Amino acid sequence: ETILDIAKIRQDFPILHQQVNGRPLVYFDNAATNQKPLPVIDALTRYYEGYNANIHRGIHHLAEQATAAFEASRRAVQQFLNAKHWEEIIFTYGTTDGINLVAQTYGRKFLNAGDEIVISGMEHHSNIVPWQMLCEERGCVLRVIPVDDNGELMLDEYEKLLSERTKLVSVVHVSNSLGTINPVETIIEKAHAVGAVVLIDGAQASSHLDLDVQALDADFYVFSAHKLYGPTGMGVLYGKRALLDAMPPYRGGGEMIKEVTFEKTTYNDPPYKFEAGTPNIADVVAVKTALEYMDGLGKENIAAHEADLLHYATEQLQELDGLRIIGQAKHKIGVVSWVMDGIHHQDTGVILDQQGIAVRTGHHCTQPLMQRFGIAGTTRASFAVYNTKDEVDRLIAGLRRVQKMML
Ligand code: PMP
């Protein structure tokens, strides 16, 4: 049993206290985005009420206050990832934006015809499509690490894919569809042995696992704030300083320059080189609060509670006739996906919603992974710190009702 006071934690999340279709809301769509605690909502309000101003160039009081808060968030993220230098933290609009940034800058400069990019069979579309676009433009070749029946990456096959042609490996830390925690440390080590750089998609890992980019030796690490109790529209790209120095800029505009004339423009140093235009100041500021909120609860306590819920939900789900869990990896975060005989996942989602239970249904932006399992989609429940076993019981009762109505 958890040492966290979940009832008290739930008081921090105003959105949870509402009725949906006449029933108390059960929110099990946390892998898509999780809910925001009051301190985060307050941080946004405090910014707009107290010190909204454009950053970096201003010399007036509010601009200095906003700049200080913005840069304090960068240090907080540096600490969160255990990055060596604050200059290695680039603020983006999210995971998708971070991956596109690397593909469009590092990729376009350093990858050539015949070079190979290795991804995995469980990638989110945002870690597939940017590389396909790059391959199309540069003539590179995409290779894919296969997934086994348990939803784990086949590491022996991965090793066979690696060669001196491999220039970049981009793999998800934790699968959003299956919950699988991938052995990214090993994946990175093997990629480095052939001289490839590695990007890790940490979208699902960031709110569940302890992160240490130096221990991992990741070259790039990306995540989104909205999946760790922070605001939408804000994300982080970590990159090793030497790589960021060597990369050309992404978008052109204000902030990313040192000097502009019509003849020639010189670019700013990282991270500013990659932060053109007015950034998402309020949301960047509030991320620090979200990280502090998680720290206050203790990430290991959050993970332990979610593991309890996963264990309980998995046991209960397996009691249902004709239900098959997709993804039975040994190491998982609190995500469980399933299919039910004779019932389309969309019907499941609609009938659960009628009972106030929010789950996600469909391919979860991982169509190739669904094809691998020969299914069109799953129903997925994903847990956050505020979820309870009572809510899992509601889900199970809801699914019995789905079966009664559909079969
Ligand atoms: N990768 C993974 C594993 C994800 O779960 C998600 C979000 N569902 C993304 C990438 C994309 O994140 P965002 O939409 O915040 O850019």
Automatic annotation (TrEMBL):
Catalyzes the removal of elemental sulfur and selenium atoms from L-cysteine, L-cystine, L-selenocysteine, and L-selenocystine to produce L-alanine. Belongs to the class-V pyridoxal-phosphate-dependent aminotransferase family. Csd subfamily. Residues 26-395 form the Aminotransferase class V domain. GO terms for molecular function: cysteine desulfurase activity; pyridoxal phosphate binding. This is Probable cysteine desulfurase. The lineage of its organism: Bacteria, Pseudomonadati, Bacteroidota, Cytophagia, Cytophagales. SUPFAM superfamilies: PLP-dependent transferases (SSF53383). It holds the Pfam family Aminotran_5. NCBIfam families: sufS. Keywords: Pyridoxal phosphate, Transferase. CDD domains: SufS_like. It catalyses: (sulfur carrier)-H + L-cysteine = (sulfur carrier)-SH + L-alanine. GO terms for biological process: cysteine metabolic process. Its EC number is 2.8.1.7. Its cofactor is pyridoxal 5'-phosphate.
